[in-house]
């Protein structure tokens, strides 16, 4: 049996810890750094469930549970892609003031080895942090990412039926 894996991604962003933390935890608008998804929850409180949904709300892409929230330093939650039958992993954002900005560390723990989740998380960590930097420093994701988000919106109907939010009540 393969062991679960851990991945660590880092970036320095020129911005305040509060602005970065808000981008990672906001629930009132799409998260430009995290695939333009809507963080949906009944409250960012440890133990509460949370989901990353499409902008329309019609599809739930990620299901999880808040593990820890310590504004503006740490946000940790469990993470499970609803389209895969893989076990959950943990996603942890740590923010630290450093010369030149804020160091953001994204740690993914307990990635189930050899799964689609491992593949997606291994590729997605760098993308998320690079887009987070763009959003905080320039106010919006890169042009290419914005085009990708438009395609996501128009092609949402192609997502697997098992991701429909009606299958993932909060």
TrEMBL record:
Family listed: Belongs to the AHA1 family.
Species for this entry: Usitatibacter palustris
A Pfam family recorded for this sequence: AHSA1
Domain Activator of Hsp90 ATPase homologue 1/2-like C-terminal per the UniProt entry, residue ranges: 45-137
Name this polypeptide is given: Activator of Hsp90 ATPase homologue 1/2-like C-terminal domain-containing protein
């Amino acid at each position: 049996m393969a062991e679960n894996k851990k991945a660590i991604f880092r970036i320095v962003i020129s911005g305040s810890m509060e602005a970065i933390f808000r981008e990672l935890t906001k629930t009132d608008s799409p998260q430009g750094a995290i695939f333009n998804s809507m963080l949906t929850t009944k409250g960012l409180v440890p133990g509460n469930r949370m989901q990353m949904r499409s902008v329309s709300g019609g599809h739930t892409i990620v299901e999880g549970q808040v593990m820890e929230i310590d504004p503006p330093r740490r946000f940790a939650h469990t993470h499970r892609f609803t389209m895969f039958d893989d076990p959950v992993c943990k996603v942890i954002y740590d923010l630290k003031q450093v010369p030149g900005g804020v160091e953001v560390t994204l740690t993914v723990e307990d990635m189930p080895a050899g799964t689609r989740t491992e593949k997606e998380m291994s590729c997605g960590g760098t993308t998320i942090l690079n887009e987070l930097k763009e959003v905080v420093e320039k106010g919006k994701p890169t042009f290419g990412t914005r085009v990708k988000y438009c395609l996501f919106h128009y092609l949402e109907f192609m997502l697997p039926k098992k991701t429909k939010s009606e299958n993932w009540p909060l």
